[in-house]
Design a protein that fits this description.
Blueprint: H1 5-19, H2 29-42, H3 47-56, H4 60-70, H5 81-98, E1 104-110, H6 116-127, E2 136-143, H7 146-154, E3 156-158, H8 159-163, H9 168-174, E4 175-178, E5 182-185, H10 187-191, E6 193-197, E7 210-214, H11 224-237, E8 238-245, E9 259-261, E10 268-271
Parallel strand pairs: 1-2, 1-7, 2-6, 7-8
Antiparallel strand pairs: 3-5, 4-5, 8-10, 9-10
Helix pairs in contact: 1-4, 2-4
Bound molecules: S-adenosylmethionine.
Length: 283
């Protein structure tokens, strides 16, 4: 099925306006693959017909479904193991010392997709019960995709998803088989994470309060300006001595002055205290 340039421009424009995600010409092959099942469900014969229906504006919910389908939700448990080792090893040890009097840690997985990132953290804390006895560990996962957040909340994964990144021992310990060849996460881990629909285009939920923020593989396809704004929002949300973890192929260097490399944990980022705290952005 061919997609005309005009149609692909309209679909890419819709995606960028709603989410900040750019669909470069070289990645526009994704459009066809991503929208196939939506078109089949709705009995829409071609992408041009889909775009004509969108443009006519008779089905406002269709635009939401198109955006959902075009988002890339790729994720898996403990993605980039080395980064998790760094965060959960020296990064967390430092925060543990810094928060020993308040005994509270606030963690935000921003762009958490279907929840594996946030649950990876929750499983690790659950496996270190004695160490975190008496602590409040607040983990929140957010994503712009309602479908992804619904799945994250359900804590239910296919056989394929549950095997990606998890050791067999962890899978056996924290998941149980559920109907339809799926696996459901244990209530203990599920209850340790709150999930919310939230866009990085919107103001941050709790300024200045997060000790750890993970924002990984979300900003890769943002425009430069959008990425700078998103970093500013993340800096606004980070505690003065909090840390930011990005995806393995991402960096703040040349992207934002709001964060600098963490001198003690190379690979993590801390707020650039030489920069004034970004002003609370207007909604
Ligand atoms: C490739 S997944 C990465 C998931 C996870 N962070 C990881 O690295 O495995 C990117 C996620 O970012 C979400 N996303 C895209 N644009 C967003 C935005 N403007 N605000 C919040 N989430 C967004 C997508 O819905 C998708 O679930």
């Amino acid at each position: 099925m061919e997609v005309s340039d005009a149609s692909s421009r309209i679909l890419a424009g819709l995606l960028e306006a709603r989410t900040g995600q750019q669909l470069a010409m070289s990645r526009r092959w994704r459009i066809e693959t991503a929208l196939q099942s939506l078109m089949r469900e709705r009995g829409i014969a071609s992408l041009d017909q889909l775009v004509a229906t969108l443009v006519a504006g008779r089905e406002p919910a269709l635009a939401d479904s198109v955006v959902e389908a075009l988002l890339n939700n790729e994720t898996f448990f403990y993605r980039d193991r080395q980064s998790f080792d760094l965060l959960l090893g020296p990064g967390l040890a430092r925060l543990e010392r810094a928060r020993s009097s308040v005994r509270t840690l606030r963690i935000w997985s921003a762009g958490c997709s279907t929840g594996q990132e946030a649950y990876s953290l929750a499983m690790t804390f659950a496996e270190q019960k004695a160490r975190w006895q008496g602590w409040t560990i607040d983990i929140v996962g957010t994503d712009i995709s309602r479908a992804a957040i619904d799945q994250a909340r359900s804590g239910t994964y296919s056989q394929f998803e549950v095997q990606r990144g998890l050791a067999v021992t962890q899978m056996m310990r924290w998941f149980e088989e559920a109907p339809g060849q799926t696996w459901r996460i244990s209530t203990e881990v599920q209850r340790a994470v709150r999930f919310q629909v939230h866009s990085l285009i919107e103001p941050v939920p709790h300024p200045g309060s997060f000790d750890i923020i993970l924002c990984r593989n979300v900003m890769l396809y943002f425009s430069e300006g959008m990425r700078r704004m998103a970093f500013a929002r993340l800096a606004e949300a980070t505690a003065d001595d909090g840390v930011l973890m990005l995806g393995a192929g991402e960096t703040v260097i040349g992207q934002s002055l709001d964060f600098v490399s963490d001198p003690d944990c190379r690979g993590l980022y801390i707020r650039n205290t030489k920069q004034p705290r970004p002003a609370r952005a207007a909604s």
